[in-house]
Amino acid sequence: MPEPSKQDNFIGVDLGGTKILAGVFTPNLKCVSRSKMSTKGERGPEAVIERIAHCVKDVVDECDLNLKQIKAVGVGAPAAVDPESGRVIFAPNLKWEDVPLKKELEKLLDLPVFIENDCNACTLGVYETELDPKPRNMIGVFLGTGIGGGLILEGKLYSGFNHTAGEIGHMVLDVNGPKCGCGNKGCFEALASRTAIFRRIQSAVKDGQKTVLTEMLGEDLADMRSGDLRKAIKRGDKFVESVIEEAAEFTGIALANLVNVFNPEVIVLGGGVMDQLEDEMLAIIVETAKEYALTGTMKGIDIHASKLGDDAGITGAAVLARRETK
């Protein structure tokens, strides 16, 4: 393990509905240690914030540093946040409303803490560590349990009037489509997230659809993961392939809308679904985006998948901490 310099290290925290991931990063954003802990959101904000602090202390100890050698902590939260005050406005998966996350964490750690929406943080992480030279305008789209995004406009993270810009997953793509967790029908998230894909497969199996997934996982498809879908397609499962193809087409339509509105130089795709199914989805996404975007608007635009994988969240949170303390 490379020796982190003894000062000016940063911590990136990825706060999720099920797990907290923390990483120690050197000044040049090399991750030297990681620590993971379950979130236990049902215990309420105070207990979760204590667990975040605990996870941070663990990861610092893991690489033989102490908190005095950490310059700042960045946190990506699955929420609408006010980055100025560091308050979580609303986090549906954690059932939080108006939680002073920055203030409480700073009390526990005695370090500067900076908070951002998780997908905004992931977008920052990709922008700083993967895109060189830096484009002026870039969009990050993350396909996971839900779908989120981040906008870099004119070189800066754009958060909008109410700090909620980048809710790409809630663009409505089909007004008669399936109901989304947000209450609307036919959101991008209700059509192409892992949750949507799994729901579609499970309901088809209940209706008698044959798939190799039932041989692999049993009739109720418990513990299904995105990687299982890739394996099923490799084994020639035409049904799973058609479900993934449809999710890729909806993603392409969503990207065409983003290109029509923002015309960024680069769109980067990430998240668990993309990590596992890039080979099966990316070409269809790009082709569909070209088909639906206005003539001429796609010229020269680069659409590709991120290589950061699971580290996107902690990397982005560390980038946030480094940016804010410069």
Features of the shown structure:
single chain, 326 residues, alpha/beta, Nucleotidyltransferase, domain 5, 5-stranded mixed beta sheet, 10 helices
Explain this structure.
With 326 residues, the protein is α/β, with parallel strands linked by helices. The chain has 2 domains: 9-124 and 311-325, ATPase, nucleotide binding domain (Nucleotidyltransferase, domain 5), CATH 3.30.420; 134-308, ATPase, nucleotide binding domain (Nucleotidyltransferase, domain 5, 2-Layer Sandwich). 41% of the residues lie in helices and 22% in strands. The protein is built from 10 helices and 13 strands. It has helices at residues 45-62, 101-109, 118-130, 188-192, 194-206, 212-217, 226-234, 238-262, 272-292, 312-325; strands spanning 9-15, 19-25, 31-38, 70-77, 80-82, 87-91, 96-99, 113-117, 138-143, 147-153, 156-157, 266-270, 302-305. The protein is globular.
Topology at a glance:
Layout: E1 9-15, E2 19-25, E3 31-38, H1 45-62, E4 70-77, E5 80-82, E6 87-91, E7 96-99, H2 101-109, E8 113-117, H3 118-130, E9 138-143, E10 147-153, E11 156-157, H4 188-192, H5 194-206, H6 212-217, H7 226-234, H8 238-262, E12 266-270, H9 272-292, E13 302-305, H10 312-325
Parallel strand pairs: 1-4, 4-8, 9-12, 12-13
Antiparallel strand pairs: 1-2, 2-3, 5-6, 6-7, 9-10, 10-11
